[in-house]
Design a protein that fits this description.
Length: about 700
């Protein structure tokens, strides 16, 4: 059997390099197998002698149909792609585990929550929603946060997002929502954007979306990376214990790295500089052993709370504020392993909301009920066979036994005569068990109707609550985002209709957007099924800034250096950052690197044009005097400084950098930290813990 090499990109050692032979009249030389290099074969295992030339009748003659190697190779290539996901097409996955803190047997019999310290393997896939597989990572979009737990009682998929509410209340509207968000059908654009007429037309006619609109226009939809965002199961689920008692639950993932987003102008530029910014970040962090972690938290409540809560707990457009039902941390998720093969794992993984395990159950949320059909259905289309659970990434890691059989690509084919139940054969296969999954016996009755419950009718109160919970700078970003998106809408009536909804949320916000769009007159407020409640208190937990990270660990600093960079300062900066768990990257005029003031060579991580400041959380400008003179002539160097300033980053600088700072036209403030001596580096690193120098914003305004 052909042996697989661990890393095909490693240069082969001389022992591994095969003999060189000359093939064909062109005189090209190629390597044949030798040493530990495996022999190239066809899919049927037939060794291949020539992979460079097809079989021809004469060197300049036609190619022969007889060339089975050519035909097999091209046939397989033609079929390499599978349909991308109809939504969440662009995603990135990683392996890890869930570690349970203590037994939750009092509320659930789910096996993974029974024993303190027990680890359950899992796979996570993060994604954007609207864009196709090749779209940029920093699109303004909801992020998918899907977790597959391989428990001892089967796979549990918690298929959530980084936002705790959804656009719609009933799954029947999902195709409309997605059609409206995706590229418009006549022109096939815009890609990965909601800034177009169809999306805002649909939204402005769907008051139930207003709470979600506040979230997606906030910085939550432009996260710094997957590592710095929360995750939510969104719906209310049930936990059921061994006595059959049910407790309602909402699932939350809290990043140990802290919450962090980029600003919109930065997002736009990151998309150009590194469209893979988010996936690269996760790949790099895991590769460096800086394993990202989230805590799983539960909001637990009973029927009595559900009865008295202001909103319907079955309505996925509502949250339960943490101030009303606190979140109990029950375990942690650690992502500690990269995928080996993107297609086999990230692309083929199939999440299904219907995958739940004994001890967890659905609620009657109409969005969740519809999802339970959609996910199984879509996997048949995407993966081509009901046997998609035979693909390793989707297969349970616990024993399983059933009588489902055959179908395309069946890989697990039980031996023996029995494929039905009941049967009377000895050893006649698996049987049902009282320990198996039992649905919670919730009593239900009522007429068959197509109707929305009255308890789902308040569309503005929590939208307002979200808005008033934000820090002023975050409110400003929401206003800017709405103005930007609606300015891309060509139809004035749609812009006005949206502003009429904003009037029901916050008059100040409506004013800002109306002014930003230069509406000729303020429209009337939209007709509301229920008036907006003014009594809901701000919830601090809804703001990113108010819950900012406690440290700068896990971030990246970009230092712009030239020949003659101060050796002591560079070394001290590197050490101070390392001590804080921060990565230092060197950006130089040439990728080959620079020689510091002590004559030591440093390889650069990026050439200046390939390493703009948007790729870093903070920057240091450390040219020598001569280097600064050179940098003033380079537009990319001026942008490096100007962008870092505009994006409210902390900026360390050497005295010799002054001509460049001047040329970039930036005004120094307390976010600029001079590095006069090596001792100043620690102060810079500690200032960076605030992530952004927001005071600059206020000063500019
Ligand atoms: Fe969905 C994928 C999350 C509503 C139908 N959804 C998908 C993924 C995530 C979510 C994270 C990507 C999974 C992966 O990485 O493979 N979806 C949500 C959340 C929702 C939601 C949090 C609301 C609370 N989705 C929703 C509805 C429907 C769907 C209402 C249909 C009625 N979603 C799908 C789908 C997808 C999907 C078509 C596309 C690819 C896939 O399932 O495997 O079935």
């Amino acid at each position: 059997m052909a042996k697989r090499k661990d890393d095909s990109r490693k240069p082969a050692s001389s022992a591994a390099v095969g003999a060189e032979v000359t093939i064909g009249k062109g005189g090209e030389t190629h390597q044949t197998a030798g040493g530990d290099r495996p022999v190239l074969t066809t899919q049927q295992g037939i060794p291949v002698a020539d992979d460079q030339n097809s079989l021809r009748a004469g060197v300049r003659g036609p190619t022969l149909l007889e060339d089975f190697h050519l035909r097999e190779k091209i046939f397989h290539f033609d079929h390499e792609r599978i349909p991308e996901r109809v939504v969440h097409a662009r995603g990135f996955g990683a392996h890890g585990y869930f570690e349970n803190y203590k037994s939750l047997a009092n509320v659930t019999q789910a096996d993974l929550f029974q024993r303190a310290g027990e680890k359950t393997p899992l796979f996570v896939r993060f994604s954007t929603v609207a864009g196709s597989k090749g779209s940029p990572d920093l699109a303004r979009d909801v992020r998918g946060f899907a977790v597959k737990f391989y428990t001892q009682q089967g796979n549990w998929d918690l298929v959530g997002n980084n936002i705790p509410v959804f656009f719609i209340q009933d799954a029947i509207k999902f195709p409309d929502l997605i059609h409206a968000a995706k590229p418009e059908p006549d022109r096939g654009f815009p890609q990965a954007q909601t800034a177009h007429d169809n999306f805002w037309d649909f939204i402005s006619l769907s008051p139930e979306s207003m709470h979600m609109i506040m979230w997606i226009m906030s910085d939550r939809t432009i996260p710094r990376s997957f590592r710095f965002m929360e995750g939510f199961g969104v719906h209310t689920f049930r936990l059921v214990n061994a006595e059959g008692k049910s407790t309602f639950v909402k699932f939350h993932w809290k990043p140990k790295q802290g919450l962090q987003s980029v600003v919109w102008n930065e997002a736009v530029k990151i998309n150009g500089a590194d469209p893979d910014f988010h996936r690269r970040d996760l790949w790099d962090a895991i590769g460096a052993g800086d394993f990202p972690e989230w805590e799983l938290g539960l909001q637990l409540f009973d029927e009595a709370f559900a009865e008295k809560f202001e909103f319907d707990i079955l309505d996925a457009t509502k949250i339960i504020p943490e101030e009303q039902v606190p979140i109990t941390p029950v375990g942690r998720m650690v992502l500690d392993r990269r995928v080996d093969n993107f297609f086999a794992e990230t692309e083929q993984v199939a999440f299904c909301t219907q995958n739940i395990v004994p001890g967890i159950d659905f609620s009657n949320d109409p969005l969740l009920q519809g999802r339970n059909f959609s996910y199984l259905d879509t996997q048949i289309k995407r993966l081509g066979s009901p046997n998609f659970t035979h693909i390793p990434i989707n297969a349970p890691k616990c024993p399983f036994a059933h009588f489902q059989q055959d179908g395309h690509m069946a890989m697990h084919n039980p031996k023996g005569r029995v494929n039905y139940e009941p049967n009377s054969w000895s050893g006649g296969g698996p049987r049902e068990s009282p320990q198996g999954f039992q649905s919670y016996p919730e009593p239900v009755e009522g007429p068959k109707v197509r109707a929305r419950s009255e308890t789902f009718a308040d569309h503005y109160s929590q939208a307002r609550q979200f808005y008033i919970s934000q820090a002023p700078i975050e409110q400003q970003h929401i206003g800017n985002a709405l103005t930007f998106e609606l300015s891309k809408v060509e139809t004035p009536a749609i812009r006005e209709r949206m502003v009429s909804h904003l009037l029901n949320i916050d008059a100040g916000l409506a004013e800002v957007v109306a002014k930003g769009l230069r509406l000729k007159a303020m429209p009337k407020p939209a007709t509301a099924a229920k008036p907006t409640r003014q009594d809901l208190k701000p919830s601090t937990k809804l703001s990113i800034i108010k819950n900012g990270p406690k440290s700068f660990a896990g971030r990246k600093v970009g230092a712009l250096v030239t020949d003659g960079v101060d050796a002591e300062i560079l070394a001290a900066l590197g050490q101070a950052l390392k001590a804080e768990g921060v990565t230092l990257k060197l950006i130089a005029p040439e990728v080959g690197g620079v020689k510091d003031s002590a004559g030591t060579w440093h390889d650069a991580d990026e050439k200046l044009e390939g390493g703009p400041s948007v790729l870093f959380d903070a920057v240091a400008i450390l040219p020598s005097k001569e280097g600064a003179a050179l940098l003033t002539t380079l537009p990319a160097a001026r942008d490096f400084v100007a962008d870092a300033t505009a994006h409210r980053k902390f900026i360390a600088y050497a005295a010799s950098a002054s001509p460049l700072l001047e040329k970039a036209g930036v005004a120094l403030d307390e976010g600029f930290i001079p590095l006069k001596t090596a001792a100043d580096c620690a102060g810079f690193v500690s200032a960076c813990g605030k992530i952004r120098f927001w005071d600059r914003d206020a000063a500019e305004r």
